[in-house]
Design goal:
seven-stranded parallel β-sheet, about 375 residues, about 40% helix, disordered N terminus, globular, 13 helices, seven-stranded mixed β-sheet, alpha/beta
Length: about 375
């Protein structure tokens, strides 16, 4: 049979050389990346190289409940050396981010500002609705491909606002962790509908992993994670686009790891590409935080506005505990990263060692760069 012939045919010397050459290039890339990653004893070892610090919260400053030992002292010392900003894949808006840190013993004055993936999700939805308003008010019927920054998610919101005045949205939110309040401005442009009974949904907004929202002022419907997964997978097969307001896969909560909205985004992507192997789900799933550029661009604009000058990225350090989100995101943004080992990867590091975890990750993600790594966020 052709398959048997294919197996029996020996590879040519040329193809063997090409494969060997490509493998060597990969090895060299990984070796360069690994050798550039420096194990440092503490933040104090590298802080004087930078003027701006972009700090993750969960797994770096605190575990969701309490600050890590030494984190408060480190944040205080860092504030005296430059500008510290919080960059967080929290699906909540940043207005309460620094306030929450103060309840744990951090001083609000130590942070120049904050940007969350919840901020980015809200801005994205409002911008898409504004595109629709521009189209309607101009009296034109532009195809969605002509609307600025077109993508399936934005186009779906635009169409919904054009057709009904509001886009229909299925909202996956939190229950035990506290439901997300969308706010008057978002409620003015979207209708949260019953995900189980309404097939005419324009897009899905994922803020949490515990419940289906029913709109501000109504109790969310607590839902088993398996049922939410089934809904997300059905939506992927129907190509209903998704806004993921927190791209993290898991986060720390005390000593436990909690499933986060990024996992739902991964389930959506897998189901989408399983149903249509020739298509990519990437444009149907909009990640509103790390590692996507959207949150780095937004925060660095804030930094420039505060400083009154352009940012020198060589003087910016991102600090985070997620290789997939903090490290990849910083690498894509062109800034250095300090990996905190005792966050969500703590068990992996305990089992395989820091170098083993970092090198294995770099082998899978050759675009990533771990400039420094250290055990904890401490001075």
């Amino acid at each position: 049979s052709p398959n048997m012939l294919r197996r029996a045919r020996a590879p040519s010397r040329l193809s063997s050389r090409v494969r060997a050459r490509d493998a060597q290039r990969r090895d060299n890339t990984i070796a360069r990346a690994s050798s550039s990653s420096m194990d440092v004893p503490s933040l104090a070892s590298v802080a004087d190289k930078y003027d701006v610090f972009l700090l993750d919260q969960f797994g770096v400053l605190h575990d969701g409940k309490n600050p890590y030992p030494g984190a408060i002292d480190a944040a205080r010392a860092l504030a005296s050396m430059g500008k510290s900003y919080i960059i967080s894949n929290s699906s909540r808006e940043s207005s309460g981010t620094i306030e929450k840190l103060t309840t744990m013993g951090f001083n609000a004055a130590w942070f120049a500002g904050a940007k969350t993936s919840g901020d980015c999700a809200k801005a994205f939805i409002l911008a898409a609705a504004a595109d629709a308003v521009d189209v309607v008010s101009n009296g034109t019927s532009l195809p969605t491909s002509d609307v600025k920054s077109s993508c399936p998610v934005r186009d779906a919101i635009v169409r919904g606002v054009e057709r009904r005045g509001k886009a229909k949205c299925a909202h996956v939110t939190w229950s035990a962790r506290g439901a997300i309040t969308l706010g008057d401005d978002v409620n003015a442009v979207i209708d949260v509908v019953d995900a189980a009974s309404d097939d005419d949904i324009d897009f899905i907004l994922i803020h949490g992993t515990e419940a289906f929202g029913r709109g501000d002022g109504a109790d969310a419907i607590e839902t088993p994670i398996d049922d939410i997964k089934a809904f997300v997978e059905r939506s992927a097969r129907r190509r209903v686009p998704v806004v993921v307001a927190n791209p993290d896969f898991v986060t720390v909560s005390g000593d436990a790891l909690v499933t986060m909205p990024g996992t739902l985004g991964k389930w959506y992507t897998d189901a989408f590409e399983c149903a249509d192997a020739a298509s990519s789900a990437s444009s149907y799933v909009r990640l509103m935080g790390k590692p996507d550029a959207i949150i780095y661009d937004a925060l660095l604009r804030d930094v420039e506005q505060t400083a009154g000058t352009s940012v020198d990225k060589t003087r910016v350090l991102a600090v985070g505990d997620s290789l997939e989100h903090d490290i990849v995101g910083a690498s894509r943004a062109g800034i250095d990263a300090l990996f905190i080992r005792d966050g969500i990867h703590a068990a992996d590091v305990a089992r395989d060692g820091a170098d083993g975890v970092v090198d294995a990750f770099l082998a899978r993600n050759v675009e990533a760069r771990v400039k420094f790594h250290t055990a904890k966020f401490q001075w």
